[in-house]
Amino acid sequence: MIRKLKNEELGRLSVDEFRSSEKSPFVVVLDNIRSMHNVGSVFRTSDAFAVNAIYLCGITGQPPHREIEKTALGATLSVAWHYAADTRDAISELREAGYQVLAIEQVAGSICLSEFQPEPGKKYALVFGNEVDGVDTEVIALCDACVEIPQFGTKHSFNITVSAGIVLWDLHSKITQKQ
Known about the structure:
Distance between the termini: 34 Å
CATH superfamily: SPOUT methyltransferase, trefoil knot domain
CATH architecture: 3-Layer(aba) Sandwich
């Protein structure tokens, strides 16, 4: 018989344990995200995949905010975050810290997500763009590469939260398989 597990059976870390635990080699960069619900959802997904930090850039909302918490469900307390008024400044800081910067975007010459193989020991900054315009063109120019999620329907993009979930799951799976 299938039985749904109770929360106390899931063995989750406390916020303090999470903060001091080993993190994935990924940081998430949110480039001018309009929706506070999307920001909160990315926090929650980043917690699930032990993302090192989130960079909130430009108009992207910052905690504490009621609408962010509605979807983050407390993940703003566990996942480290930083604010940068300009995404380009965040990218410069991350590059100086040794991160390879990847825009998640559809561009000429992008790498299909299924073909991208993260290298063990390397750190990656994953840039997700605005709900309407995607990653800013000036930001794309500063990235080391662009990774594209394959799509097979009539729409040209995913919601930012879906993109973050797909990419983080895929890269986390590839990294853990190599360990």
